[in-house]
Design a protein that fits this description.
The complex is a heterodimer of chains A (about 210) and B (about 500). Chain A has six helices and two strands. Chain A is mainly alpha-helical. In chain A, strands 1-2 form a two-stranded antiparallel ribbon. In chain B, strands 1-2 form a two-stranded antiparallel ribbon. In chain B, strand 1 and strand 2 form a beta hairpin. In chain B, helix 1 packs across helix 16. The chains are: A mainly alpha (about 210), B mainly alpha (about 500).
Chain lengths: ~210, ~500
Amino acid sequence: MKIKNSKDFWAGLMFIGFGLAFAIIARGDVLGVKLAPGYQMGTSLRMGPAYFPTVLGGMLAALGLVIFVRAFFSTLKGEAVRVHLPFNIVDLAVGAAVFAGLAWASKALYDNADWGMLAASVVLSILAILLRPEARALMLILTSCLAFAYLLKPLGLILSSAILIFISAFGGHEFKLKEVAILSLVLIVFSVLAFVKGLTLPFPIWPAFMD
Amino acid sequence: MDIFANLALGFGVALSPFNLLMCLIGVLLGTLIGVLPGIGPVATIAMLLPITFNLSPIAALIMLAGIYYGAQYGGSTTAILVNLPGEASSVVTCLDGYQMARRGRAGPALATAAIGSFFAGCVATLVVAMFAPPLAEVALKFGPAEYFSLMVLGLVAAVVLAHGSLMKAIAMVILGLLLGLIGTDVNSGVLRFAFGISELADGIGFVVVAMGMFGLAEIVANLEHKGEREVFTTKVKNLWPTRDDWKRIWAPILRGTLLGSALGILPGGGALLASFGAYTLEKKVSRNAKEFGKGAIEGVAAPESANNAGAQTSFIPLLTLGIPSNAVMALMIGAMMIQGIAPGPQVMTERPQLFWGMIASMWLGNLMLVVLNLPLIGMWIKLLTVPYRMLYPSILLFMGIGVFSLSNNPFDVLIMGFFGLIGYICVKLECEPAPMILGFILGPLMEENLRRAMLLSRGDATVFVDPVNKPISFGFLVASAILLVIIALPNIRKKREEVFVEEA
């Protein structure tokens, strides 16, 4: 069997995965094998918390299966449809494993998963730049947001904003140091005045160790 | 007449200096962000939502409505000048608007869009004021079964309008419904799908999902397209349409307004359906049909009027039934919930000031668009010349600050990143995110109404399709079924795919 539409192929798998995950977590078992604590199913008269998600999860998985099967037959214009993703399923699995692993490790060591997740996104960004140049924009954009979020409280708005701007700008096609520096300066002044002074958001401006 | 007393009350609220200022700021900010290439109204509203959190409900909703009109108008400006539609509803404006700009007639095209939108806005405001109260009266009689069936109809309609594969759109709706269930179950108090993460107890904020799926995913997608586009900046002189132009646009504006107002009320309708419908209609009836696609001013006037009329009348199902008919309305409903307002027919009777104030501010917002945006057009054009490499870090920073400030917690930003990744993958797999957002908002509401309806019927599921006792619910479900069957028919399916191919 040849895949004629790989967009349908992966979309189908994704929906099957989500559908089964929701249904299994809600019910707690698969054919009698206990996998999760599960929630009360209830009856159609008094629906328990598991009822609606189980039904929906089943529907989603069934639809996913149809879409998946269709991928082997569907020929809208007679030609094969390909996905253009800058990473493959193995990359995605490795990425998820690195992310979860470092988060777990940092939770075990420092009782805080944040640093592990931040470290993981930095590691994955470097890997993307080196090995998957097409995923560079995606990874650096995501990393810039995470870095901003996790560094805002310890480093303050000024430094974390600068970090977000530099990392995200580095994800674009052109990176001009001077231009990015000027942009950072303008945006930081604006953010401090508008958000902290104007809208009185409770953000620290300076790093915690300077106070 | 009641309606005038009501509108007077509304204008009394909307004309207070503070609310006027909020409306003005909303329109300006909406245009400012909406004019940026590749950012549609949904992303604009999602990005700007956090700034309304500290306002009173009335001021917040007035500002949001202003943001919406501004974003819509900003999107048209970009469509005409850069041939880059921010969202599907301005795709048709690109067809003739950009051609007009290439011929040096960008000014009249922009002015026509503004004038058409304003006229449509005036009419649509009246339509909302006239139709909302009777509809709300009907809606007050709705029980849980009717609500459930109505939501089914709304979701089906959203699916019909999604791009591409029907089955993928349905799957996205269901995925949205499921994601909406994350958090504490209101009936049993059980924490669902939270994995022991305390931040998930209240569920995932829809702002976070919307910003990730639309904002982040869009920025990444834009970064991947490298191609430079031609911007017509120097050629915008004579703004005002000529006498000949006026002769050609008045009828299309009128037709577009009427069609748009009607289509906006339908569940699943709104700006997108309206602008497509109006363009197609105009192409059929116009004497200058041959010019369409080559810079016919009718091709700008009709869809621009229609999409503004549709944008506005799609507030009717939201305000009267509490049902969002498209992704933008889903954001509005989310904003109402954040403000502690349960959307539904009771809003009109319990909070008439909010209801009528918002309707009055719709008209004011439209007026501000014309009065402000035409003179400011030079400024918006300057913004278009700012390179994207300077824009997106700024947008990212504001999104980051906005999402972080939701609960002063980095966790929301993490979730936004997660949905950014999901949104990016979905776009690549041709699964449209808009139906998902709708499902996400409706998930808990649907479950709640399903449970109540089943409890009232003593566990009898036929209550939804009982033509004698529940004719309304029966009607909604029959309509949903008919809609699904119609678009699944081979002929229609082919046509539908053609329409969306043409658009892409």
